[in-house]
Amino acid sequence: MLDWSRGELGQRAGLSERTVTDFERGAREPHENNRRALREAFEAAGLEFIAQNGGGAGIRFRNRADGTREEH
Predict the structure, then answer these.
(1) C-alpha 43: how far from chain center
(2) Are 37 and 43 in contact, with CB atoms under 8 Å apart?
(3) pTM of the model as a whole
(4) Which InterPro entries match (predicted)?
């Protein structure tokens, strides 16, 4: 969705690229502070997390208050 590299995601979340890679491949389980940092990085980029609502949990771009869509 955002077309970020692992390095860019790590930088935005304050994590190393190696840490992001380890999370992706399941070599390490992220601690709560890592999950929070990743979520905050995604939310700062305009994404919002959607709770389980019968159709499954998900993520989407948040609309701006003026009705236009944020582009990233």
Answers:
(1) 7
(2) no
(3) 0.78
(4) Cro/C1-type_HTH, Lambda_DNA-bd_dom_sf
